[in-house]
Amino acid sequence: MNATVCGDDMKRNLGILKEELNNASIKRISKPLLVWYDRNKRVLPWREKVTPYGVWISEIMLQQTRVEAVKPYYERFMHALPDISALSRVDEEELLKLWEGLGYYNRARNLKKAAQRIMELYGGEMPAEYDALLALPGIGSYTGGAIASIAFGLGKPAVDGNVLRVLSRLRADVRNVSDEKVRRAVEAELEDSMPKDRPGDFNQALMEIGACVCMPNGAPHCEACPLAFECKAHANGSELAYPVKEAKKARTKEDKTVLLIRDAGRVALTKRPSKGLLAGMYEFPCLAGHVSAKEVAKYLSEHGLKVLRILPMGDAKHVFTHKEWHMIGYEVRVDELANAIADEETGKWIYVDPKETREKYPIPSAYEAYAAKLSMIRGKKRFLEEE
């Protein structure tokens, strides 16, 4: 017999055996996991009355944002836009203002696009078919699985970072979870093995374990984990070795000078381009690089402003996924903003009362340190103040 053929058969059989063992481990954890979830699940607004719309909005908000931070956003969003019809008709600036502080603003835009598609194709009702969910803008396999399982009881997995971490440690899985092929394989393994009577609770339980027990930063709370009996990484004392990920690429760094230009009652803002990073958001006029106060005064004088005073406001840094902004800032008091003439670099300026930014003019959290100087209470801080 050909040795190569024999070797291939052996690899294939080992692969099948490994898959069966993986599926068996998932099946063994289902009961204790669900018992733990029934006793320990957090009380969350989107769980109080489960609707497809509520599940959808909450899952999009929860991507890369902590649960406690999402709660006030979710409640305010649902009050302003209680259904798919309202979301489909909302003005973009109002939508971005509701999203202000959550970041990843294209997610909010995709919500509106998907709502418009749902109005057109499904009469305003969220489709109950998994493939139909995946065809909507902004809904991938994770969000589609969450909606399908939690809202419609379909046996579809919802695999996020929490789930990958839990299963990687449970099975001492050395596969690279950054690889999309691995994610798809884990989804297939879960779909074959998850309980068909409570798929939504099973998905949420895995996420909850990952968020509250088998956490990403620091040592996991294995002593409180209902899956410790099955966890290979815990048995080996190697919990922190999993999940296996590829190294992150270094972020590019960009220096900026932020200008809070104000007269007696107003402050200058400019709107970012309609495409690209933070598209359509409002920001303070900025200059490239770290510019001296003398250079700022010269620049503003050349653009029709009589500068009365320039005060440094200190440094700030904001980290995006692939980029870092390293900022310095100046508060600039001028005689009269109405005479200002914007140029190509800063765009067209508008002049607003800082209080207006509480309900209008969405400003990215990148400028939080400078917005606070003008009592521009944004995002979560605004929600906490209103409680």
Describe this structure in words.
- The N and C termini lie far apart (76 Å).
- The strands form two sheets. This protein has a four-stranded mixed beta sheet with strand order 4-1-6-5. It has a three-stranded antiparallel beta sheet with strand order 3-2-7, with no helix packed on it.
- It has two domains: 3-241, Endonuclease III, domain 1, CATH 1.10.340.30; 252-386, Nucleoside Triphosphate Pyrophosphohydrolase, CATH 3.90.79.
- Helices cover 47% and strands 13% of the residues.
- The longest helix is centred in the N-terminal third of the chain and has 38 residues, at 3-40.
- Helix 1 crosses helix 12, helix 3 (52-62) packs across helix 4 (67-80) and helix 10 (161-171) packs across helix 12 (199-212).
- Strand 5 (307-319) and strand 6 (323-334) form a beta hairpin.
- The chain is of the alpha+beta class.
- The model is unreliable at 3-7, 9-18 and 382-387 (pLDDT under 50).
